[in-house]
Structures are given as structure tokens and as C-alpha cells.
């Protein structure tokens, strides 16, 4: 760890246990750059330090929150330059060239965290996090500052599980903040999120999926592709999974007959529910229920 006047940068070794949690904390810091100071400051490892003329490429995700001040950001995908202002988050993705710096007249104070793991990769694949380096605006500064500060405080003592929980919390704040401010709200993305809720609410009905897409203001072919990309299942398969999971809960928690359960979750008959249930869970619903009640 390097530290001076309350500012620091810390780089952590890889943890075998961290892979079990899906996200691990690899580095972080808090640095104040006075107007005119050289940027970035010395003391970073060679694979993190950079010069403005050359930029850099990282192998992990970084979240850089600008508490105060202003500056500029550039990336291969984003173009030559983008203004960064107080409260913005510079979001860095693995494998993409980028560079950023505070304005000479204002400087800035930055708080940053570096994460890696399967969870941020899955969130990116699902479209919940940006696939490219970006400047995110309009996020909640109090929550972001508290989340990053909590991760910083755990550098010396937190285990892999505690660090992973903090990392997941930070990623969740980014995802929810982007949703509130529409930064990931392409029409198909918004349609899929709404469709997930609608399908869960209408399990007892037999939905017309193309009609549902029209209700949500998108074409069915694109809706179906985006739905599968984000959930891993086509809309009809997703609906079947919801129905069978609800049926399983009803069979385990209520005395309802198989016929009543099948009607409640949208199957045309107890026979069709039984066949689908056995295909999914490997056992007929009556046998499954008897096993649950055996204890």
C-alpha cells in the first residue's frame, strides 16, 4: 500500500477462495490531485500506471468515482474526449484502451475500486453493465461513496466473502443507478424487464407472446432474441420454468390438489402439469410431495 496525507493505493493478491464468490476485490484507492499536479501519481504498478499520450488497457473492471473536480476521459470506443464532472463514475472494462485525467485548472478527488470475476462478466453479458468503457452520470453519490469507503476500510482485514459482498453491493448500485437514469434502457432492454414481471404476474393465463411484445412496443423477433440473451431462455421456456417453480412451491406448502395447482399456474390439466414437472424435476409431483411430507 502507498499512502500520503490520507490518500492511498492498494493492490491485493489473487485469492483462491475469491473465485467461489463470483467477484473479488483486487485494488483500490483514494487520491486527491491538486490543480496542475502530474497525473497519474507515481507508485502504481507498471500494468496500472500510464501516460496520457499512450493510455492503458486493464485486465479487470474499475469503478472510478469523482467526488469533486472535473476532467476528461477518452476510450477507443467512445472517441477522442468526454468531459468528466463532479459525481461522475468512470467505468473501465477489461481489455479496452482508455485514458483519463483531471483538468489542470480544477484537479479532482477520485475514489476507485478494481474488481474481477464471473459476476461482473455475467452482468455485462446480460446488458446490465456497460460492455465498453464509459462515463456514467446521475448516480447517487452518497451511496456510491459509502460503498467504496466500506470496501477501502476492509482492505487490511476483510476476507474473500466480505469483500465479495461489498463488491456485489457496488455493482448493484451501478446497475440500479443506470436503470433509474435510463442509461441502459434501450427499448428491447426495457421490454424484457417489464415482460419478466408481467409473465410472473400472469401465470394462470395463457399469454400470446407476440401480442405481449406488441403491448410492450417492440417487434417479437427482436424481443425474443433479447429475452433469451438476458435470461438464457426463450420467453416460452422462461414461462414454463416460472410455472413449474410456482407449482413446486404450492405442492410443498399447501394441501391443494394437483388439479387445483395446475389451474393456478396455467396448465390445461393435471396430466400436462405432471408430465412437465417430471421432465423438469425428475419425479412425478405426487411422489415429490410425498417425499417432502415424509419427514
CA(first)-CA(last) distance: 55 Å
The CATH architecture of the largest domain would be Sandwich
Care to count the β-strands? 10
What's the main sheet like? Answer: 7 strands, antiparallel
Global mean pLDDT: 88
Overall tally of domains: 3
- Poorly predicted regions are none
Strand arrangement within the widest β-sheet reads: 1-2-3-9-4-7-10
What share of residues are in beta strands? 15-25%
Taken from the alpha-carbon principal axes, the silhouette is elongated
Q: How many H/I helical runs?
A: 11
- The gyration radius over C-alpha positions equals 24 Å
User: What percent of the residues sit in helical stretches (DSSP H or I)?
Assistant: 40-55%
CATH superfamily of the largest domain: Jelly Rolls
Q: Give the CATH topology of the largest domain.
A: Jelly Rolls
CATH structural class of the largest domain: Mainly Beta
Q: What structural class results from the helix and strand content? A: alpha+beta
Topology diagram in text:
Blueprint: E1 2-4, E2 7-11, H1 18-21, E3 24-33, E4 61-69, E5 71-75, E6 79-84, E7 89-92, E8 98-102, E9 108-116, H2 118-125, E10 134-136, H3 141-153, H4 160-180, H5 187-201, H6 209-215, H7 220-231, H8 235-253, H9 258-264, H10 270-281, H11 285-293
Antiparallel strand pairs: 1-2, 2-3, 3-9, 4-7, 4-9, 5-6, 5-8, 7-10
Helix pairs in contact: 3-4, 5-7, 9-10
